Amino acid sequence: MKIKYISALLVLLAAAKVNAQQEMMLNSLQNLWHSNTSTNPAFFPENKHFVIGLPAYSIDAAHSGDLTYKDIFRKDGDRTIVDFDNAISKLDPENDLNFDQRLETVSFGFRSPNNKWGFQLGHAIAFSGALTYPKALPELLWNGNASYIGQTVEIGLQADIADWHEWSVGVMRQFGPLNVGVRAKYLTGISALRTDDDRHSMSIYTDPDIYQLTLKTDYAFYSSSIISAIDTADLGFDITLDALGNKLRSKNNGIAFDLGGVLKVGERLTLDASVINLGGLIKWKNDPRYFQSKAEYTYSGSTIPGEDILNGSDSLDFDTKLDTLNDIFRFSQTATDAMETRAPMRIYVGGTFELTKHWSVGLTVFHQKKDRDSNTAVGASVRWLPLKWLSLGAMYGVNNRSAANLGFHVAFTPGPVQVYFLSDNLLNAFALKSSPAANLRAGLALAF
After folding, report:
1. Structure-derived torsion over alpha carbons of residues 26, 106, 101, 46, reported in degrees to the nearest 10
2. pTM of the model
3. What is the DSSP letter of 149?
4. What is the pairing mode between strands 345-354 and 289-299?
5. Helix, strand, coil: what percent of the chain each, to 5?
6. In the chain, where the domains are located
């Protein structure tokens, strides 16, 4: 593959990490243990008193517009080729990539024989982020600046990405028909990268008469355990990446709280509400760095500096091109104590109504708030219990991205075993390569 394909990075990220984590279907399944650990600390499997939560994995992510994996990679006979021209044509003027991923490694739950008290502890690894970039950025890198003659074009991207460990301990208390739960979570950050909200400008202007390029930057970002250095010495433009580890302990610490309640109204109606990741601020103290570039550079060439690098020119002069990039950006770095990120806050409000012994219906309202993005969704569900140990269900959902989301679940609960697979969007779960979004969850638990 030519060096040219480096400029597919933004879209490749969408394909690899593929709008905020909803899990409305999971919230409607109160008898599954992982509905406690992920959506409401007041849930507990009915008639169970001890639970071991084994691994569970979930992902919810989406790229704005209709860009999919198949738009980037397509078959040409026996080969798979990169069709980046086609991918660029599918982009909007401004593009967003949002992703949430969660791995619950292990958890434990205990409820007293009289059901009055319950306790929980567990561990999970969370990864959340948002990326905004203009179509002009990949278009300029891939096709050059010919279509932007006489225009000033912004190419700066904005990012807010972090992953962290969650160590949790919770308690539940029953008051007649009402069950309430609270969970405290100690957050230890793994890595993060966040652009400065006030400094994310990179622009390029091509003179229509002499085709001279003028590039301006007022761009800055924070990084911890991702980028350790941007070398602007005479040797050229070089980015040094930290060796990404996954330490269970770090200096990057924070606290979050989950609050929830479940109310039984009569024999058939159950209402629930919860707030997840209340607080959730992580302060990054493990070598946090602030990188900044504020410069203006006029380039006498007719193409963007670095374009030949990305396009793999046969007559490429690497030293000259790299020195040119170095002159433009002139990144400097300083240590900082002002780097912070926040775990996304999620709110669930729902209700279920038992029609018969085997059929029930439900409604879930969801809202998620990130620092730079928010998402609201509503889902109406139906659940069928053909056997005591088998649950099947469907959900119709509406969110900020789409008004046509058909979710489903299947759960097997023979004896103490709980095994399930679910998705808030059936088509995304089984057609990841042809969809601009992905949403699914699977997990295993033992409940006694």
Report:
1. 10
2. 0.85
3. B
4. unpaired
5. 15, 55, 30
6. 3-447
